[in-house]
Amino acid sequence: MSWIKQNKFLSGFLAFMVIGVGALGYLLMQAQSHYSEVRTDYETKAQELNRLETLKPYPEAENLKLIEAQKAQQFAVIEALHKNLAAAQLPTEQISREQFQDKLREAVTRVTTKAKEGGIALPAMFYLGMDKYQSEPPLPEAAPALGRQLNAVEFILTKLLDAGVVAITKFDRDALPEEEGKGKKDPAKQGGGAGKAEKSAKNLVSYHGMQIEFTSDQGRFRNILNEIVTEKGQFYVPRLVVVKNEKEDAPARFQPGVAGAEPPKPGAASGTKKLVFGSEKVNVSLVLDVVDFAEVAAK
């Protein structure tokens, strides 16, 4: 203590220095903490800038125009493809429900007459799967769609009759949505909305099935199927094909008393040979879809 009293200036100076060093250390720690925060923020922003600059494409006006041009080109290609597909189908005629009933009667007459001339049996009460419209007309909005389906049905049945099948044992078809009042509606009357547009996009392609059972030679059946799937005027898709041989049991290897069916005796001349496989008829169950491509909306 005596030294401090004797050297007041020096002791005061030392005390000031200690306080100054402490304050400076505190300020240095604060500055270092702030520097760390600033550096972290800088590095984060630098990384984000680098991410944006390396994006493909980089989000700027020129690249945005490029994306829009590519998008428009893609839509044009899709629209052209869809128009080509829509052209490969039977046209829809704007007819009244009375006109549809007239067309249906005429089609039934043509098909039944052709079957009778060819000696081909048809199911009882045969009316092209549209029996209910024999006595009552369809809904007015359903007539055009039914007229188109009638053309598709008559085409298939005519194809079977021209091929010379033995018999058509069953024919039925799926009802169209328009027959139940669930057909296409005008979007302008329904109002806008992304949800409705998205729902409409899912109905670009629809399938309307028909079920046919017939008996035919094997070769003629193959020709019929090939001609249906390669038809250019309308898309048909065989959804299910079941072929059953009319003879479920294979013939015996040797049938006593039948010429050519039992092994020849040594030294004996061969008799008349009989074809064992390939001459049987086949019973065919065919589920066939008529494919309908929706019209492309104008832009």
Structure, explained:
The protein has eight helices and four strands. It is of the alpha+beta class and 299 residues long. The protein is rod-shaped and about 145 Å long.
Q: Which keywords apply here?
A:
single chain, rod-shaped, 14% strand, 299 residues, 4 strands, alpha+beta, four-stranded antiparallel β-sheet
Quick gist of this model?
This protein is an alpha+beta fold. It has helices at residues 2-6, 8-53, 61-87, 97-118, 143-163, 187-190, 194-201, 218-229; strands spanning 167-173, 205-217, 236-245, 281-293. The chain is rod-shaped, with a radius of gyration of 42 Å.
Reconstruct the topology from this structure.
Blueprint: H1 2-6, H2 8-53, H3 61-87, H4 97-118, H5 143-163, E1 167-173, H6 187-190, H7 194-201, E2 205-217, H8 218-229, E3 236-245, E4 281-293
Antiparallel strand pairs: 1-2, 2-4, 3-4
Give the DSSP E fraction (strand runs of 2 or more residues): 5-15%
Low-confidence parts: 185-201
In one word, what is the shape? Answer: rod-shaped
Range of helix content: 40-55%
The helix/strand series, from N terminus to C terminus, equals HHHHHEHHEHEE
Largest sheet: 4 strands, antiparallel
Q: What Rg do the Cα atoms give?
A: 42 Å
Q: Please report the total strand number as a whole number.
A: 4
